[in-house]
Specification:
The chain has 211 residues and is α/β, with parallel strands linked by helices. It contains 6 helices and 9 strands. Helices cover 28% and strands 28% of the residues. α6 links the parallel β6 and β7. The N and C termini lie far apart (47 Å). The structure holds S-adenosylmethionine (SAM). S-adenosylmethionine (SAM) binds next to β2, α4 and β4.
Length: 211
């Protein structure tokens, strides 16, 4: 077994030890090679539990954050998931590897183009588009789940409207420096939420985000 594969296995064990139990999430994260999504200069750090730069002043999220948010969505194969903030394409690839039907939006077209190449090279079916994800992607709504991978000033109502009843939303909300993770379930048209502290994201910029 190569060094990177060993490191990936160790990362999965670390996620288990930190309370990630969803086998669908863990299996997908053990298959998606995170080192392919980071700059070559950060190759040695690809399986550290940290966010890393991916260009355009953006980051690939920390593996624990990816695992925690994905687990919080309680996903099954074939569920329709919208991701706001494609970034490197790592999170979307994990979702696609889980068997979900993935739609993802990114405002930086250079990042989107690299992410599309990653989807292609891994043979993963992911629908993607460039633009402001804070308005969602109404053509494919409603979604079983929506995951926002950048920090918002508030929960955009538009995204709640594009969730199915019973659908789940994971979104970091706070100020520009620190956020708490809001995990919501849409029940009878309203979002019932719980809050988890201790996450940090780049800002969500757009009509229903930051200026
Ligand atoms: N999910 C990504 C991954 O797996 O690499 C990490 C995403 S990074 C933490 C957040 C991303 O959200 C950035 O790429 C940023 O450009 C993007 N973003 C910020 N505001 C956005 C918006 N309104 N619409 C779409 N993408 C946005």
């Amino acid at each position: 077994m190569g060094r990177l594969e060993t490191e990936r296995k160790e990362l999965i064990e670390m996620l288990r030890s930190k309370g990630i139990t969803d086998e669908l999430v863990l299996t997908a994260m053990s298959k998606i090679e995170r080192h392919l999504f980071v700059d070559k200069m950060h190759l040695n750090r690809a399986y550290e539990d940290s966010a890393l730069p991916i260009g355009s002043q953006q980051t690939i999220s920390q593996p624990y954050t990816v695992a925690f948010m994905t687990q919080a969505l309680k996903l099954n194969k074939d569920m329709k998931v919208l991701e706001i903030g494609t970034g490197s394409g790592y999170q979307a690839s994990v979702l696609a590897m889980m068997g979900c039907r993935v739609f993802t939006i990114e405002r930086h077209l250079s990042l989107l183009n690299s992410a599309r190449k990653m989807f292609e090279s891994q043979n993963l079916m992911v629908a993607s588009k460039g633009g402001d994800g804070t308005v969602g992607w109404s053509e494919h709504a409603p979604y079983d789940a929506i995951i926002v991978t950048a920090g918002a000033p508030h929960v955009p109502e538009t995204l709640v409207n594009q969730l199915k009843d019973g659908g789940r939303l994971a979104i970091p909300v706070g100020d520009r420096e620190s956020q708490e993770l809001v995990i919501g379930t849409k029940i009878n048209g309203k979002l019932e939420t719980m809050i988890v502290e201790g996450f940090k994201f780049v800002p969500l910029i757009g009509k229903n985000g930051w200026n």
